[in-house]
């Protein structure tokens, strides 16, 4: 499987790096094209990826094409090559660009799927939310899933839920990073070295997430299991409740959904 990224910004690089990091494919199986040739070469050649002068050159060499540009550029980059995409697997990682949007741009009978990855795919521990509506054949979807499941949890959702699912998995890392930083600041305030505080906070987040996934325990139950009567944790929990911790998170998601 040779994969070509049209657009090679942060998300495309995260996907490419994750695939190589997990030995899912080798670097020379990854092609990329972008407007800025010098920057493209800088981001590809040092890692063994293959830069292409334009998208047509890229499409000629690959089996799967990943559209990874800004939403306002999708039509511009697809129109000149749409006839060449008919016999390719086309995967989109463009925010808020659904199956129906692509149907208006792509040539008839093009096989495509819209997805929303998050940045932890770069270390093989990400999420890729996929729109259930797709024109991939069963075999093509299996090829996609078998490859990318090596670097991410693959979750399929209806079109109406694609946006909110992408918000949780895609914006969540920023919120979680803020939480890790806040925990670290508090630890440093009370004398713990910064490097140790980051390590403990980050590992705590990873472990708690894995515990929930593997046990399928309700998060409220997990919280209660740590809160002893009259203990230290319940003091912290009640303080967060008074400060609007959960309502702030809910409000942040609501504001994103308004965009």
Q: What does it look like?
A:
- By secondary structure, this protein is α/β, with parallel strands linked by helices.
- Helices cover 51% and strands 15% of the residues.
- It has two domains: 3-157, NAD(P)-binding Rossmann-like Domain (Rossmann fold); 165-257, ProC C-terminal domain-like (ProC C-terminal domain-like fold, Orthogonal Bundle), CATH 1.10.3730.
- It is built from eleven helices and eight strands.
- The protein has an eight-stranded mixed β-sheet with strand order 3-2-1-4-5-6-7-8, with helices on both faces.
- Helix 1 (10-21) links the parallel strand 1 (3-6) and strand 2 (30-33).
- The longest helix has 31 residues, at 159-189.
- The chain is elongated and about 65 Å long.
Describe the secondary-structure layout.
Layout: E1 3-6, H1 10-21, E2 30-33, H2 37-44, E3 50-52, H3 55-61, E4 64-67, H4 74-78, E5 89-92, H5 99-103, E6 111-117, E7 126-131, H6 138-148, E8 152-157, H7 159-189, H8 194-215, H9 219-226, H10 232-242, H11 245-257
Parallel strand pairs: 1-2, 1-4, 2-3, 4-5, 5-6, 7-8
Antiparallel strand pairs: 6-7
Helix pairs in contact: 7-8, 7-11
Radius of gyration: 21 Å
Mean pLDDT, to the nearest integer, reads 96
Number of domains: 2
Oligomeric state of this protein: single chain
Number of helices: 11
Identify the CATH architecture of the largest domain.
3-Layer(aba) Sandwich
DSSP strand count: 8
| Structural class by helix and strand composition | alpha/beta
Main sheet attributes: strand count, strand direction, barrel closure: 8 strands, mixed
Please mark out the parts with pLDDT under 50 across 5 or more consecutive residues, or reply none. none
Shape: elongated
CATH superfamily of the largest domain: NAD(P)-binding Rossmann-like Domain
CATH topology of the largest domain: Rossmann fold
Q: Tell me the helix content.
A: 40-55%
CATH domain class of the largest domain: Alpha Beta
Distance between the termini: 36 Å
H/E series, N to C?
EHEHEHEHEHEEHEHHHHH
Roughly what fraction of the amino acids lie in strands?
5-15%
Identify the strand order in the major beta sheet: 3-2-1-4-5-6-7-8
């Amino acid at each position: 499987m040779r994969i070509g990224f049209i657009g090679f910004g942060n998300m495309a690089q995260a996907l490419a790096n994750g695939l190589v990091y997990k030995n899912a494919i080798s670097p020379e199986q990854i092609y990329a094209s972008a407007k800025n040739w010098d920057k493209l070469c800088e981001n590809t050649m040092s890692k063994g990826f293959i830069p292409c002068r334009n998208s047509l050159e890229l499409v000629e060499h690959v089996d799967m094409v990943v559209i990874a540009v800004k939403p306002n550029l999708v039509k511009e980059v697809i129109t000149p090559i749409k006839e060449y995409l008919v016999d390719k697997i086309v995967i989109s990682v463009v925010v808020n660009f659904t199956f129906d949007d692509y149907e208006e741009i792509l040539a008839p009978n093009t096989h495509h799927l819209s997805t929303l990855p998050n940045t932890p795919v770069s270390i093989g521990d990400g999420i890729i939310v996929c729109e259930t509506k797709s024109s991939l054949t069963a075999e093509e979807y299996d090829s996609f899933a078998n490859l990318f499941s090596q670097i991410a949890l693959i979750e399929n959702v209806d079109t109406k839920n694609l946006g909110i699912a992408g918000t949780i998995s895609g914006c969540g890392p920023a919120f979680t990073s803020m939480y890790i930083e806040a925990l670290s600041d508090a630890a440093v305030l009370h004398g713990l070295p910064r490097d140790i505080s980051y390590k403990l906070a980050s590992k705590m987040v990873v472990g708690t997430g894995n515990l929930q996934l593997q046990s399928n325990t309700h998060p409220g139950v997990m919280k209660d299991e740590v809160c002893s009567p009259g203990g230290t944790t319940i003091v912290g929990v009640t303080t967060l409740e008074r400060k609007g911790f959960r309502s702030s998170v809910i409000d942040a998601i609501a504001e994103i959904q308004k965009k």
